[in-house]
Amino acid sequence: MIISTRLAVAYKEAEALAAPLPAPASRGMRTAPAEAVRDWTAEEREVFARHVVNLRGGKLSTTGTFSSSPDQVAKIFNEFIPEYAAKQKGQPARVLFFAHGGLTEEEEGLIAVLRRRRFFEMNGVYPVYFVWETGLKETVQDIVGAAIPKRGERGAPTDFAIEKAARNGGKQVWSQMKKSAQKAADPDGGARLVAELAGTLWKATRGTVEFHALGHSAGSIFHAFFLPLLVAQKPAGVAPVDVRTLHFLAPASTTDLFKKRLKPLIGPGQPITSLTMYTMNDELEQDDSSIRAYGKSLLYLVTNAFEDAVPTPILGLQKNLKQDLPLIRFFGLAGTEKVADIVFSQTAGAAPLNARSQSIKHGGFDNDMATMTSVIRRVLDVSDAKPVVDYFEESVAGFEKPPVGTAPPASSGKGARGAGARRRKPARSASPKKR
Question: pTM of the full predicted structure?
Answer without folding.
Answer: 0.85
